[in-house]
Amino acid sequence: MKKLKWGMIGGGEGSQIGPAHRLGALADGRFEFTAGALDHRPDVGREYAQRLGVAEDRAYGDWAEMLAGERGREDRVDLVTVATPNSTHFEITKSFLEAGFNVLCEKPMTMTVEEGEEIVKIAAASGRICAVNYCYSAYPMVRQARAMVRAGEIGKVRLVVTNFSHGHHGDATDADNPRVRWRYDPAMAGVSGQFADCGIHALHMASFIADDEVESLSADFASTIASRKLEDDAMVNFRMSGGTVGRLWTSSVAIGRQHGFDIQVFGETGGLRWESEQPNQLIYTPVGGRTQVIEKGEAGLCEDAQRLSRVAIAHPEGFPLAVANIYCDLADAIAGEARDGLPDAAAGVRSMAAVYTAVASAKDGGAWMDARPPMFQ
Length: 377
Ligand SMILES: NC(=O)c1ccc[n+]([C@@H]2O[C@H](COP(=O)([O-])OP(=O)(O)OC[C@H]3O[C@@H](n4cnc5c(N)ncnc54)[C@H](O)[C@@H]3O)[C@@H](O)[C@H]2O)c1
Fold this sequence. Notes:
9-stranded mixed sheet, 12 helices, Dihydrodipicolinate Reductase, domain 2, alpha/beta, Rossmann fold, binds nicotinamide-adenine-dinucleotide
């Protein structure tokens, strides 16, 4: 099979998410690393891209130079990943979609709901793929959970409870550290801190497994470290279109919790539980029956869970391979085989609408509000 050509913007040396994208994109031989504008410092980005094997003429200094260089080529890249800081996502994603490129954008897709709706429309008009990197949804056992819900194995879903709560910004003496401070500074982070950063992963996961969309929510935000202008802890209650009740806790001051991302889905005839720190196990309890551990790699899993597993049963398969699963689905989609689980621009704008609604609700004493973007109301 001919390899697809892949380009990356952001994700330079020392970045947090860059390595996961490179490991993911290149894991299965579906893509080759062809072009990049990897760093906000042009020379540093050019040098690093070449060290990673990108040809000199496709190691660009910035994204505009990459757009100009790639759009004129017959062998232009098939997919562009946007892994820059949040405030740049909209402009870069919009520009590449309009020029006819497929895009994988990091979350959050945009800074506003209006921008998110624009991206949905541009992607539809261009006929190109615009995916958003809700990569936790690509763990095999998360796909298994969704398949079990769809197959009715826990009956109608009554309740979803999810947490994305860690303690890595819990040290008040470290609150002025420049790597931490920007996340709670509205000028850099936007209207929300922890909920926009981690909470939206949990909210997307709730929709993904329950196979339903968030319709309304009520939020309580707190800045437990008083100097912070944005929340470092949030509790969000929500309701889904099908009536499912949702509870979400996200925090960055929960000292002792490490990654701290988990989800429980309770239906009329059973319950499911998954934790990102034990991603190969899905816990299933049928009503009146025994609790079972469903292992990645064992017999009888759904087609997606089998397709997206690579190593033998009981061997860990972690975060970069979940990102690789997003790239597998993208390679299939680019080849014309649309993949149902791939998070799209609609998921991106739904998250932005939830962020703005949660901010408004928290300011209004937790009032319940419609959490859907106008285009989906
Ligand atoms: N999906 C996930 O689980 C996940 C996890 C971590 C981060 N993220 C997202 O990934 C994005 C990047 O986060 P990070 O933690 O890697 O940030 P980071 O600050 O560690 O790295 C950002 C990188 O982008 C480069 N960069 C900045 N501006 C640029 C520009 N205009 N052009 C080219 N390169 C530029 C920087 O030089 C750096 O290499 C954010 O949107 C973040 O929300 C997602």
